[in-house]
Amino acid sequence: MKLLEERIRKDGIVRAGNVLKVDSFLNHQMDIELINEMGKEFKRLFADEQIDRILTVEASGIGIACIVAQYFGVPVVFAKKSQTKNIDGDVYSSKVESFTHGRIYDVMVSKKYIHEGDRVLLIDDFLANGCALLGLLEICEEAKAHVVGAGICVEKGFQQGGDLIRERGIHLESLAIVDAMDSQTGAITFREQ
Ligand code: 5GP
């Protein structure tokens, strides 16, 4: 998606350790006009699919998923990152290793909000090593829900996540794929799509 690539080039900051900061328009301050366009694009890319709900993971996926969901007219469910007293009854859960924080945490979804046979679209901001998406896939498997596909804003194509998800036959759509980035020069190379 050219609009997103241009914005990443303009405002994205390449940090050491393969981290791309997009705090000024996606991860801290959010450019709603841009995210709206991303929502329209996901709707176009998954136009043929019947979708019952969107599943994401807190925190940075939530705002994006909510805007995207308006184009599909479905609810958003977000996986919570730790057991809280607010979540009652049984949960589906999975362990996820955080790329940005380097620690392992549990993600969980109440059994009330994801059901057998649900057609689920996964949405997240970044795809790096794939742990977050694999965790959501595991939750859907446990729930016997059907994953229709995964929509990602920024895939870092030089990390393994994209391959792992595609190898599983999941319909993965990434709006921008970064094939290389250099923290010294700030240069970013996008994959032609
Ligand atoms: P994965 O689980 O695929 O390794 O990493 C995906 C998760 O880590 C995303 O939910 C995102 O929040 C975070 N993440 C991974 N790489 C980056 C990055 O380069 N920049 C930012 N802002 N977040 C990232």
Automatic annotation (TrEMBL):
Domain of life: Bacteria
One GO cellular component, as annotated: cytoplasm
Pathway: Purine metabolism; XMP biosynthesis via salvage pathway; XMP from xanthine: step 1/1
Enzyme class: transferase
Binding site for xanthine: L20, N27, K156
Key words of the record: Cytoplasm, Glycosyltransferase, Purine salvage, Transferase
Subunit structure comment from the entry: Homodimer.
Protein's job: Converts the preformed base xanthine, a product of nucleic acid breakdown, to xanthosine 5'-monophosphate (XMP), so it can be reused for RNA or DNA synthesis.
Family that this chain belongs to: Belongs to the purine/pyrimidine phosphoribosyltransferase family. Xpt subfamily.
GO biological process entries: purine ribonucleoside salvage; xanthine metabolic process; XMP salvage
Protein name stated in the entry: Xanthine phosphoribosyltransferase
Location(s), subcellular: Cytoplasm
Binding-site list for 5-phospho-alpha-D-ribose 1-diphosphate: A128, N129, G130, C131, A132
Reaction it catalyzes: XMP + diphosphate = xanthine + 5-phospho-alpha-D-ribose 1-diphosphate
Gene behind this protein: xpt
MF GO annotations: xanthine phosphoribosyltransferase activity
Matching InterPro entries: PRTase-like (IPR029057), PRTase_dom (IPR000836), Pur/Pyrimidine_PRTase (IPR050118), Xanthine_PRibTrfase (IPR010079)
Keyword match Protease: no
Organism: Agathobacter ruminis
